[in-house]
Amino acid sequence: MTRGLDAYAYLKSPIHRWEVRCKLVSLLALIFAFAFVQQLILLPAMVVVTLIYYGISRLPVAFLLKRLRYPGFFLAAIAILLPFSVGDTVIWQAGFLALRQEGLLALILIITRFLCILTVGLILFGTAPFLTSIKAMRELGLPAVLADMTLLSYRYIEQFGEDLRRMQTAMRLRGFRVNNLSRRNLTVLASLIGSLLVRSYDQSQQVYQAMILRGYGCVPRRRQRFKTHASDLVALVVTCFVAIGFVVAEIVLAS
Amino acid sequence: MHIPDGILPASIIVAGYATTGGVTWYSLRQIKRDRNPQENIPKASLLTAAFFVASWIHIPVPPASVHLILNGLLGTILGYYAFPAILIGLFFQAVMFQHGGLSTLGVNASMFGIPALLAYHLFQLRYKIGKNNRVWTGIFAFLAGAGGLGLSVVLFFILIITNIPANIDATVERNAIYGLVLAHIPLMLIEGAFTAAVALFLMRVKPELLEQ
């Protein structure tokens, strides 16, 4: 639905067929193992593992590249600052600009970890319908309040986004131009957000009544039926083994 | 201001998840004490979606524009629902837009959520001192909005500067944190003024949204 995150959830690949609860546990373990890595020597293995999983998932490369564009700013700032400001070993100098080895190595570590974790996250949520992933999290023990809030918020994000766009268009048609920071502009924008909140609050009353009519809170929750096959468990064990391998290698290399 | 994947060491990531787990547990326990917690779930969920969408609005701050964080406002309106709301909002940000990250979700949720809870208690102080008129609502909403963002900014820079995996001189580190926090004071004032303006709008149009 929203922003095409699960646009490729319909593809057929071993990762798509992987039972969602097993996939969540395995790939989250891999993400945490990647976050644990500090040794540069482990980075090529991390990249290879990530590429293998992405290859098996059959997600298009364009999907990954499109998603990589979003988080650029913060990382760009670090990429500019770190190699020139951190460390003592100068490896190249031009005037006052000195490229330092420690900063450069820190940057390589940060960027590689970032790319690998982000790619595994995309595989995790890009290979199953988003609602199925949330239901799987519920089955894994996510509290009911959080699961219900996540599902309902997800359902309404798109609609409120459309409401906001419509209200902004109406404001522009009435001559509102937000070019500078002034008290009046801030008050108008505050009213815009206030209206959005009031609309959502009013709608939540109707949603609650509709949910009560459908038996929300009275009828026992129907459990999502996830079927786990032997191949799902094998993939779970293999992935957890890889994740543990990274953690053990990191500890051994660090000591 | 979200901390992306790859920057923080595993110890901080685990500590972030532990803190978020603890505060979420505490928030859910407080929520269950409500007269009718079930009734508030759709309200909190739809307001979470609305806040998520509202953060797309950009405010012109020359020479660029910024989007507001709104965690103080979220705290003032949602009370103990603010922490789960922020956790869910950040989860959506991470998986839909790759702002923040899955490994840093715990750290980011604590960084924005704990100040939101403090903002809620700050906003509720107006009842304690018996001043629930427009002027005091505006003042406390300003303090909640500015304080919510301010505390998040301080936490953000401490986490970033102390955890970049290379040695920075301690004095430089301290000065960098002071400098970057001071540079964000104008944004805190804007966030505070904006929170006050929204609170006053709601007080006029839908006062029940501000009542807990």
Give a brief rundown of this model.
Chain A is mainly α. Helices cover 71% and strands 4% of the residues of chain A. Chain B has helices spanning 10-32, 37-54, 71-78, 82-97, 105-128, 134-163, 170-183, 185-205, and strands spanning 58-61, 64-67.
What does this structure look like?
The complex is a heterodimer of chains A (255) and B (212). Chain A is mainly α and 255 residues long. Chain A has ten helices and two strands. Chain A has helices at residues 14-17, 20-36, 43-57, 61-68, 72-85, 101-126, 130-139, 144-173, 183-213, 230-254; strands at 90-94, 97-100. A two-stranded antiparallel ribbon of chain A has the order 1-2. In chain A, a hairpin with a 2-residue loop joins strand 1 (90-94) and strand 2. Chain A is flat, with a radius of gyration of 24 Å. In chain A, 34% of the residues are buried. The mean pLDDT of chain A is 87. By secondary structure, chain B is mainly alpha-helical. Helices cover 73% and strands 4% of the residues of chain B. Chain B has a two-stranded antiparallel sheet with strand order 1-2. Chain B is globular, with a radius of gyration of 17 Å. The two termini of chain B are 29 Å apart. The relative contact order of chain B is 0.15. At the A-B interface, helix 2, helix 5, helix 6, helix 8 and helix 9 of A face helix 1, helix 2, strand 1, helix 4 and helix 8 of B.
Secondary-structure map:
The complex is a heterodimer of chains A (255) and B (212).
Chain A: H1 14-17, H2 20-36, H3 43-57, H4 61-68, H5 72-85, E1 90-94, E2 97-100, H6 101-126, H7 130-139, H8 144-173, H9 183-213, H10 230-254
Antiparallel strand pairs in A: 1-2
Helix pairs in contact in A: 2-6, 2-10, 3-6, 5-6, 7-8
Chain B: H1 10-32, H2 37-54, E1 58-61, E2 64-67, H3 71-78, H4 82-97, H5 105-128, H6 134-163, H7 170-183, H8 185-205
The main sheet of chain A comes to:
2 strands, antiparallel
Determine the N-to-C terminus distance of chain B. 29 Å
Show unreliable segments of chain B: none
Number of helical stretches of at least 4 residues of chain B: 8
